[in-house]
């Protein structure tokens, strides 16, 4: 049967392929014309037409009742003798399902390529080097290092009121998690901080920046731009762990002087930070993330094939 809510917006009309228990606001329609011919595919064809009709027409104040549903008139394909053409409906739905799966596959391929490109990777297969790097997280020697001694004094951004900002292309970073703290794209003449550095905002939240940007007085900039990108990302994570502890809030802001005093834990080699190991660990972590995306995409495509019955073809 087909179910719909009496407050549907047109996006809540479904085919129910199994027995179910319905909430009181759920209404239902059973096929009475040639009932033995209807299947999920032909009912989906009807649902699409009902949804098109219902979208935007109903709300809590104007309910989509069974009487209203009974009065809907839809156009369906028919054979020469005037009987419903179920094969045509099934064929259209099958073609749309196949197109949907193909689009899913193409989208996921594009997503994987984008992830690999942004990570500087050619593939996401872990090598022996990657496995050794990840396993060394527990076996490496670690030591505490001061951020200022490693990278020099942190730089503080300058306030730029929203009303004074002009539209442009430079990302402007403020405190917050939304959009990684990028509050606007500006054209103002402000200090531009280099790609490869990272910010720590007033709450102690650190974020690596792989682009040039401006920043307001609620962010401190740590100058890791001379490191490889992966090593800088590792340091950013270490700084976030050390600073984002709950000690900083609206009443006690994190400033550049706090960044200069911050002690972070890093793996070492011969008593110095092991930058090569940090680079290798982050590279392997990137591969694991992309691998997870690939596995999720494969499961999503497999589920779509199963639901549409295309897995048996």
Question: For the report, how would you describe the main beta sheet?
Answer: 4 strands, antiparallel
* Beta strands, count: 13
Percent strand equals 15-25%
Strand order, sheet with most strands = 5-11-8-9
Q: What is the subunit arrangement here?
A: single chain
Rg over alpha carbons = 29 Å
Percent helix among the residues? 40-55%
| Arithmetic mean of pLDDT | 88
Low-confidence stretches: none
Total of helices = 8
Secondary-structure-based class equals alpha+beta
Distance N to C terminus: 26 Å
* Global geometry: elongated
What is the H/E string? EEEHHHHEHEEEEEEEHHEEH
Name its key features.
313 residues, alpha+beta, 40% helix, 13 strands, 3-stranded antiparallel sheet, elongated, 4-stranded antiparallel sheet
Present the secondary structure layout.
Layout: E1 2-5, E2 13-15, E3 26-29, H1 40-54, H2 66-70, H3 86-119, H4 128-139, E4 141-146, H5 147-151, E5 155-156, E6 167-173, E7 182-186, E8 198-201, E9 206-208, E10 214-215, E11 219-222, H6 229-243, H7 256-261, E12 263-269, E13 272-273, H8 275-308
Parallel strand pairs: 6-10
Antiparallel strand pairs: 1-2, 1-3, 4-12, 5-11, 6-7, 8-9, 8-11, 12-13
């Amino acid at each position: 049967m087909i179910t719909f809510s009496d407050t549907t917006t047109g996006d809540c009309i479904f085919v129910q392929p199994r027995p179910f228990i319905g909430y009181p606001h759920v209404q239902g329609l059973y096929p009475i014309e040639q009932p033995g011919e209807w299947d999920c595919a032909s009912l989906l064809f009807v649902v699409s037409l009902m949804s098109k009709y219902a979208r935007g027409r109903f709300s809590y104040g104007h309910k989509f009742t069974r009487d209203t549903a009974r009065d809907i008139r839809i156009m369906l394909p028919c054979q020469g003798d005037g009987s419903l053409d179920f094969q045509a409906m099934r064929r259209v739905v099958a073609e749309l399902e196949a197109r949907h799966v193909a689009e899913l596959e193409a989208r996921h391929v594009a997503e994987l390529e984008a992830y690999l490109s942004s990570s500087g990777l050619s593939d996401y297969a872990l090598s022996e080097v990657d496995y050794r790097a990840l396993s060394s997280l527990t076996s490496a020697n670690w030591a505490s290092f001061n951020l200022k001694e490693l990278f020099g004094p942190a730089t503080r951004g300058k306030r730029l009121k929203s009303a004074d900002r002009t539209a442009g292309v430079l990302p402007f970073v403020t405190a917050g998690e939304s959009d990684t703290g990028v509050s606007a794209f500006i054209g103002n003449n402000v200090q531009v901080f280099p790609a490869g550095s990272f910010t720590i905002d007033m709450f102690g939240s650190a974020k690596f920046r792989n682009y040039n940007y401006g920043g307001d007085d609620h962010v401190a900039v740590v100058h890791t731009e001379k490191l490889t990108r992966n090593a800088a990302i590792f340091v950013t994570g270490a700084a976030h762990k050390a600073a984002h502890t709950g000690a900083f809030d609206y009443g006690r802001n994190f400033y550049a002087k706090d960044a200069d005093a911050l002690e972070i834990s890093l793996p070492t080699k011969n008593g110095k930070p092991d930058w090569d190991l940090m680079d290798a660990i982050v590279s392997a972590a990137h591969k694991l993330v992309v691998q997870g995306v690939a596995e999720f995409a494969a499961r999503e495509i497999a589920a779509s094939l199963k639901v549409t019955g295309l897995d048996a073809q």
